């Protein structure tokens, strides 16, 4: 008789039944162990170890060689859902392939990042797709569908979206709170996650480090109220690294780790990423919470059930049926072609007076100059390059090496110390260990080595290339291409191929020495120590808290050649100049560090100006993870392009666009502002009140959302919109009227003509990237749910579509609208606020000044507190009916609430309560009738939760 398999091994049963069977076989301790990122094997049941978390933002990261696609913001610039889906498929296949050879590779991938690019100074802007929730959501759906695969039961990989919720700053990221009013929450931040989850291709989310409305994301009630309400599929919530500990140590939100862990588990966190591979700390906290009665077995089982469902979906228990089990697709020809296609589609032509494209067949000389001209930069979430293409590589290959002149533009310097010059001893390669195939020293093999001799002070100076990346941050590089770096022993060596690492060891800062003309100390940013010359070599002296004297050697800088002079010579000798500027993603704005300004670093500003002064046929090619304020360059230069760091094919793609092999058709996924003065505060998340993003910004941007030029012309015509029940069917003609085949991105926007509340100036409702030959036309169709015309009605606590006229706009950018038609939507007007029946939640204001939303209780609810003495909350069109006799104020803290209605002000004293969560009800007389605006001013430490009103007859 054939032995029947254990039910959890039986593929004929639904996953839910199999999960329940397996859960019942696990001991309590085994279940607890599964809640850590590194879940151990259960040998007695034949269960392998399982790890949540594999970075795969734009390729397989941190696990060695892989195909490297453009950064996420570059994928956002393609505006191409189909392309992004195919990239997701390729990345998923490479994850599977690497997993087959390395069990450290996980199939639960933490990607994509769908945080909105609200503020262009955010250090992690390179990780997001767009400032628009609709575009971000569409690309997230595409990428996750590719990562997930199309099998009805088994998943190629299990994508987890990052980072829930309202996360757009690195400054104080684990202690800052994003004040998010209900309209912004429902209309903006939640939407970026919603559609991807509803598509069925998402396995879970990762909460962000920050707090929202005073409450850490890792204990947010929104996880259950919204996230898990969007789908019936089990979703696994994986904590961000170290965030469970932050709940106590940095945020001080809970007194003990047992309380914090229990609260996170009850809120919906299933997998705890904390203390690296040491699971004992977190499992100990969970066990402690169990003993204290803060959680029960049901809480643990609920989380384990979700994690097991993901493992079943990944085919772990059905290897013979898993369609992705035998995937073998790493660095294939198709993946290389896809990387090039993506890099080409990501290029955005910002300006062009006809200089571009350049004809390679004319035999004219091109100078490629700038600090990124021969660079192929990676970021923190990149894999290791198998192939590498810089702008210099690409231009030499396309235009011919004899027709390309190169100058980097770094300043070449000697550093003088008291007894001589900073000198780099010849490296001892230790046999062939540090030599490549040609016998030359291989910088990649030298990186991080401590057996290399440290720098010395000698009679012979070593020439160094000095690059100022802005904000006083510099790198120094020797002629062989190796960066000065500081190893664990504190010695300074020329040993790094590129700046990188979680703590970058290759960046320094000059500090002028008072009383020493031309003298500078060199601060090593990674350690906070100063560079000192000692008898046994150059070292970094660790900061000494007990010794107030500043350590470190005083250096004088001798410039042997200014970078701008080299650039000017190259520019003068060429027919056309390509100046490549931008950022290094490991230096200028990155995870843990926001940018300070939109300005291009001064050294790079000098380079394009020097090139243009020598040759007016100068093109600025910006290769960066972020927007820059380039008003002068835009007004001066004949052509500007932008591309995010484009991965392994970046240089080839740029050269093909410059040569006209490809007509550029990328579009900006976020607004480019003209100056820092146009930006709101980094921590101001109220895009409505502070008029942020293209949705509400009323100024004139340098380049608008959706902007991008091509080498041809397109016309838009015959826009029609027909309502069919809950859908609008919109279509228009797009015609290529020029002489060049090209992609075009048709963009569809909607605008409420006469809204009763502030609404977006226009909002993206659809987009389509299409390719048209010269003279060709295509009818482009969109389907827009009528629901998308709506907004969150704070007066009634619901989503509503106001009746009235709505413009349907089509064009080539958010400000280049070519066609407009109007549709009329019927319905019942929302009406005034029914305050007698519903009261007023304090956070449901229409406008505010000088306040922030905070947590009413640690588990749920919002309140509002003053952040400035000059503060006000405005609630419009409050219906008091035939009259009120009183008001009930629910508040905590101490101070007063000033309520103004109908020109009369009532001051309601709030006696001191026992802490911020001890809300008390205070009664006061208030006479109001009819419909009018209500204003509230807060005094003292009051945290106002809500107002309720008593009818005059009560």
From TrEMBL:
Alphabetical keyword list: Hydrolase, Signal
Annotated Gene3D superfamilies: 2.60.120.380, Galactose-binding domain-like, Glycoside hydrolase family 3 C-terminal domain, Glycoside hydrolase, family 3, N-terminal domain, Immunoglobulins
One GO MF term attached to the UniProt entry: hydrolase activity
Domain Fibronectin type III-like, residue spans: 744-814
Residue span, Cellulose binding type IV domain: 833-951
One Pfam family in the UniProt entry: CBM_6
Family assignment from sequence similarity: Belongs to the glycosyl hydrolase 3 family.
Record-linked PANTHER family: BETA-D-XYLOSIDASE 5-RELATED, SUGAR HYDROLASE-RELATED
Name of the molecule in the record: Glycoside hydrolase family 3 C-terminal domain-containing protein
Source organism of the structure: Streptomyces drozdowiczii
């Amino acid at each position: 008789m054939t032995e029947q398999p254990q039910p959890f091994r039986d593929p004929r049963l639904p996953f839910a039944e199999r999960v329940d069977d397996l859960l019942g076989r696990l001991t309590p301790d085994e279940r607890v162990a599964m809640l850590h990122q590194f879940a151990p094997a259960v040998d007695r049941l034949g269960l392998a170890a399982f790890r949540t978390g594999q970075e795969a933002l734009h390729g397989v990261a941190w696990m060695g060689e892989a195909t490297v696609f453009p950064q996420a913001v570059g994928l956002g610039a393609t505006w191409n859902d189909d392309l992004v889906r195919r990239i997701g498929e390729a990345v998923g296949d490479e994850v599977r392939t690497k997993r087959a050879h390395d069990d450290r590779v996980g199939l639960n991938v933490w990607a994509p990042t769908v945080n909105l690019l609200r503020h262009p100074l955010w250090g992690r802007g390179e990780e997001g797709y767009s400032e628009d929730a609709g575009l971000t959501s569409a690309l997230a759906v595409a990428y996750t569908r590719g990562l997930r695969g199309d099998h009805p039961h088994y998943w190629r990989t299990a994508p987890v979206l990052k980072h829930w919720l309202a996360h757009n700053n690195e400054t104080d990221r684990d202690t800052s709170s994003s004040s998010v009013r209900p309209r912004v929450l429902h209309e903006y931040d939640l939407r970026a996650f919603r559609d991807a989850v509803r598509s069925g291709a998402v396995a879970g989310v990762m909460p962000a480090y920050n707090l929202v409305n005073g409450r850490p994301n890792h204990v947010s009630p929104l996880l259950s109220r919204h996230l898990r309400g969007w789908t019936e599929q089990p979703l696994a919530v994986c904590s961000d690294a170290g965030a469970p500990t932050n709940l106590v140590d940095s945020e001080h939100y809970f007194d003990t780790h047992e309380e914090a862990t229990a609260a996170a588990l009850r809120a919906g966190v299933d997998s705890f990423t904390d203390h690296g591979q040491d699971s004992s700390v977190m499992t100990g906290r969970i066990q402690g919470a169990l003993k204290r009665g803060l959680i029960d077995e049901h809480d643990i089982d609920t989380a384990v059930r979700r994690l097991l469902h993901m493992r079943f979906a990944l085919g772990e228990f059905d290897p013979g049926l898993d369609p992705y089990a035998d995937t073998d697709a790493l660095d294939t020809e198709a993946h290389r072609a896809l990387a090039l296609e993506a890099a080409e589609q990501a290029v955005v032509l910002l300006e062009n007076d006809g200089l571009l494209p350049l004809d390679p067949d004319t035999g004219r000389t091109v100078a490629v100059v700038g600090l990124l001209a021969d660079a192929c930069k990676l970021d923190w979430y990149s894999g290791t390059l198998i192939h590498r293409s810089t702008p210099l590589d690409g231009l030499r290959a396309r235009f011919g090496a004899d027709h390309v002149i190169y100058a980097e533009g770094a300043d070449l310097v000697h550093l003088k110390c008291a007894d001589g010059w900073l000198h780099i001893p010849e490296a001892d390669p230790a046999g062939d260990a540090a030599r490549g195939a040609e016998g030359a020293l291989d910088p990649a093999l030298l990186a991080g080595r401590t057996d290399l001799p440290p720098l010395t002070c000698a009679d012979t100076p070593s020439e160094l290339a000095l690059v100022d990346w802005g904000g006083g941050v510099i790198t120094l590089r020797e002629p062989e291409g190796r960066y000065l770096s500081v190893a664990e022993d504190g010695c300074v060596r020329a040993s790094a191929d590129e700046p990188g690492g979680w703590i970058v060891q290759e960046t320094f800062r000059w500090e002028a020495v008072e009383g020493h003309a031309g003298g500078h100390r060199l601060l090593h940013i990674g350690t906070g120590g100063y560079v000192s010359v000692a008898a046994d070599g150059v070292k970094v002296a660790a900061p000494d808290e007990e010794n107030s004297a500043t350590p470190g050697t005083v250096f004088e800088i001798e410039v042997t050649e200014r970078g701008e002079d080299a650039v000017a010579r190259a520019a003068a000798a060429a027919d056309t100049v390509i100046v490549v500027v931008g950022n290094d993603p490991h230096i200028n704005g990155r995870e843990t560090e926001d940018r300070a300004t939109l300005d291009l670093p001064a050294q790079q500003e000098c380079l394009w100006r020097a090139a243009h002064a020598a040759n007016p046929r100068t093109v600025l090619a910006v290769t960066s993870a972020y927007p820059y304020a380039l008003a002068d360059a835009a007004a001066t230069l004949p052509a500007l392009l932008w591309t995010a760091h484009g991965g392994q094919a970046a240089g080839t793609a740029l050269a093909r666009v410059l040569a006209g092999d490809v007509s550029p058709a990328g579009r900006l996924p976020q607004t480019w502002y003209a100056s820092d003065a146009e930006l709101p505060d980094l921590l101001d998340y109220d895009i409505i009140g502070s008029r942020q993003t293209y949705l509400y910004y009323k100024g004139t941007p340098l380049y608008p959302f959706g902007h991008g030029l091509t080498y041809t012309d397109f016309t838009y015509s015959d826009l029609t919109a027909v309502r069919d029940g809950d859908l609008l069917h919109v279509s228009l003609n797009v015609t290529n009227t020029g002489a060049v085949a090209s992609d075009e991105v048709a963009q569809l926007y909607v605008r409420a003509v006469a809204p009763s509340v502030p609404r977006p100036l226009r909002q993206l409702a659809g987009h389509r990237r299409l390719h048209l030959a010269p003279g060709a036309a295509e009818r482009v169709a969109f389907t827009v749910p009528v629901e998308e015309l709506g907004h969150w009605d704070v007066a009634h606590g619901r989503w509503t579509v106001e009746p009235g006229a709505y413009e349907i706009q089509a064009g080539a950018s958010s400000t280049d609208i070519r066609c407009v038609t109007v549709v009329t939507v019927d319905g019942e007007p929302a009406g005034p606020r029914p305050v007698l029946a519903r009261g007023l939640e304090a956070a449901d204001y229409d406008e505010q000044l000088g306040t922030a939303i905070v947590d009413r209780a640690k588990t749920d609810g919002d309140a509002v507190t003053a952040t400035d003495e000059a503060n006000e909350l405005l609630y419009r069109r409050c219906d008091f009916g035939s009259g009120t006799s009183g008001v009930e104020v629910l508040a905590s803290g101490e101070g007063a609430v000033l309520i103004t209605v109908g020109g009369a002000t009532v001051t309601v004293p709030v006696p001191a309560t026992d802490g911020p969560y001890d809300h008390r009800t205070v009664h006061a007389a208030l006479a109001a009738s009819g419909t009018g605006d209500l204003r509230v001013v807060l005094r003292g430490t009051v945290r106002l939760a809500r107002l309720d009103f008593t009818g005059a007859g009560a």
